[in-house]
Each structure stands twice: as structure tokens, then as C-alpha cells.
Amino acid sequence: MTAPAVPWDRAGAAYDFRGDAFDLNKPGDRELVRFVLSQALYGEATGVYCGKSLYAASTLEAARFYVRQARQELNHLELFADIFRTLEMEPMPAHWVIKLLSAHNNYYPLKVLMEHAIGEGMVLDIFKDVLMQTLPDSDPRVPEIKKKLAVVCREEEEHVAWGEKETRRLLAAQPWLRHPYYGLLLLQLAVAPVVVRAFAGRAKGHPVLQHLGGFVAFVESRVRAQGRELGFVPERDPGVIVRWACMLAGALLFVRSQFARSRSVLEHSYLRELGFGGGSSPAP
Ligand SMILES: [Fe+2]
Ligand SMILES: [Fe+2]
Questions:
Q1: How is the chain split into domains, by residue range?
Q2: Which residue of 60, 230, 241, 266 shows the fewest CB atoms closer than 10 Å?
Q3: How far does the centroid of ligand 1 lie from the alpha carbon of residue 67, in Å?
Q4: Rg for the chain, CA atoms, rounded
Q5: How far does the centroid of ligand 2 lie from the alpha carbon of residue 166, in Å?
Q6: From ligand 2's centre to the CA of 50, what distance in Å?
Q7: The domain defined by 27-262 carries CATH number 1.10.620.20
């Protein structure tokens, strides 16, 4: 399916809200911002999953990345808490879809694709596009908030880049992964819009919510382009049977991933990793 045309910015890398913003003095708008920020806060709290990723890291590079990411995500958690306090808002529990999409996966090939490349990629869409554009600069509290968000966005870009780098490496070593990867991307794209469905009825006439359809289409289009660039989304959409087969392969791999055990590797590979020539091969 081809996504409808959406108003991209010059670089085609961000959705353009055309200056439409929330009014932080209106109770309805404050509730919407509170909802978005609450999902972000939960997502940042899942940064503690980096502990499991560090435990299972098979290379020194991966271990270094997860130590750094853990520090950054915990910092993001506190930055979002500061934003809640600045706006005098109380967080609400996360939506079930956010909990599902941000769940930890012990199976490394799915972790790097679903958590980092696609998951944190979508998170970045929300932070960079929705929050940075739709929080009103006219509100005196917003410039400080945007400074914090700029730090978060820069670091989330690093996390996405790591996921993309590892996804490329795994696809080169195990090309069969492209079929379940494609299926999982289709499944993620089917589930993610459920989060915004609750607001669809209020979209008409609201300056920000009227962009909902366009923004969802933009994210879908961007994620598909990302998958094409990574080499697992075909240039042309395959027929429905192939798509269903890929989704089945993705679902089966996901089920298999639920039985993957987290095990440490670095104590076997550390000699080679440190350049001493010893140690066994790391598991993917
Ligand atoms: Fe984060
Ligand atoms: Fe992140």
C-alpha cells in the first residue's frame, strides 16, 4: 500500500505541522499534551532494560553502547519528569500499545530492529516532530522545555543509528531475516496507529489533531523507507499472500524470541575483543 502524499519538510525527514500548536492554557489541549508526555515518560523508564542488554552484549562495542544508553535514558526520564513539573501536570499510566511496543526482547536480531531501529525511530518522530513543533513557543515555559527535548532527540538519534547499524550487520550475516523483519515491520505499522485512534473523533477543527491522519501516514511512509534502506522492505509492495507469509514468519520469529534466554557472552570473548587473539565467537 502506498501512503498518501503528506506535507514533508524540505529534507523530507520530518512532518510539517505548519505552525499549528497546542494551547497550554486550554484544559483539553493540556490533557492531550499530558497523554503524549506520559507515553514518553513510560518509554524512558524502560531504559532500565539496557541492563539486560549489557549482560548479553557480545562485543565490547555493544557493551559500551548499552552502558552509555542506560545513562542517557535515565537522564531522559528525569528530563521528562522536569517537563511535567514545569507544566504542572501529573503523569498518567502508559497506553497498552506503548507497553507492547517498548517491551524488551532477549533475541538480539529482533531487539536491534524492533526496539532500536523502528521503535526508537518512531519515538524520535514523536519527540522531534510532534513535541518540538506543537508545543507553543509563545508560552514562556516552552523554550526551556525545547532545550531539554533537543538533548533527548540528539541522543535518540544515536540509539536509532546503533539499531540500524546492527540490523545491517545481522542481515548481511543472516539474509533469511529479511522476510520476518518485513513481516514484523508490517505488524508494528498495523498496531502503532491504535494509540491515536481514541483522538480521531476530536480531530476535526483542532489545529494539531487535524494533522493526525497526515502524521500517521508520514510515519508509515518514513518507516517503510527506512526498511528499504536497510534492505528488508521490497521496492514494490508484494502481493497479499507474500505479505501474509512474511507476517506469519515475523510472528513465528517473535514467538521464538519469547523463549530466548538472556546469557552473557563477553566473559568468553573478552580476550579476542581486547585484541589478545583468544576467546570463542560471539553469538549473534
Ligand atoms: Fe530516551
Ligand atoms: Fe532511546
A1: 27-262
A2: 241
A3: 13
A4: 20
A5: 15
A6: 10
A7: yes
